[in-house]
Amino acid sequence: MSTTQGRRIAVTCGEPAGIGPEIIVKAWQALRGELELFVIGDPAHFADLAPLQELTDPGVNLSDDALPILAHSFDAPRIPGSPDPSNAQGVVDAIARAVDLVRTGQAGALCTAPIHKQALQDGAGFIYPGHTEYLAALAEVDTVVMMLASEQLRVVPVTIHIALEEVKAALTPDLLEDTIRITHAGLVRDFGIAFPRLALAGLNPHAGEGGKMGREEIELIEPVLDRLRQEGFDLHGPMSADTMFHAAARETYDVAICMYHDQALIPIKTLDFDRGVNVTLGLPFVRTSPDHGTALDIAGQGIANPSSMIEALRLADRMAQARE
To answer: Dihedral (C-alpha) 92, 95, 99, 105: value to the nearest 10 degrees?
Structure first.
């Protein structure tokens, strides 16, 4: 293989009962020879999906003919479509083990298969809203940013998994400034964009239309943008969200920063539903993930689409190269 050991991607198995094991195997089959990866999971959960190369050390030579897997024991078998809470601690511990490997240089990037939060709460008392918050805690980082990326568009929501009625209170100048700074730094470090162009959506229809449809743009967003522009940030906006995602508009910026979840995710999922990648910016290591859930309803049927996992692995590899 052409890759170096330092850029090997550690892939966590995610929820064993979901489509994670299937899409991991399909992605490995598609990408072997292009990049190096190894899975952290229970070999018994993968034995019926591919030949396995069981590892005791992630630094050994990896096979092109067998899925490299760093054995991590789980308490129960994999039953597609039926999460077993007794496997929850294994899922959580596999993530922590992967973070240790990337932080100690034994892997160059982390790619996580989807988890089932209810199963983790029931079986392991998991207290985090999701992967992102748990990874931030493991890395001892206070603020991270969620980016969704594809070949056509990159988006960042400032507020994420909260009710729409809570967005106005959650959207503070400090949060907006932190999001802009982390996103800018991530584009430079992880995407190799020396002078990033950031487009900011307004909160209100027509970006408030001069205060007639809301004053958040005038009183909250614009002062933050003006201050950062004085530091040299290339910031556009606040822009009307309904006119910033057509093809010509997308050519004018490298990322769109949006004020709430759906404002960011609807455009990218409309443009490129199957190949969007979830990226966590602000961590001391590279982390990507497919932009979908465990899909318990189709698990075990062999029909899961691996496109997002394939793109997540490719992006993790490119980001690791950029950091080098």
So the answer is: 140
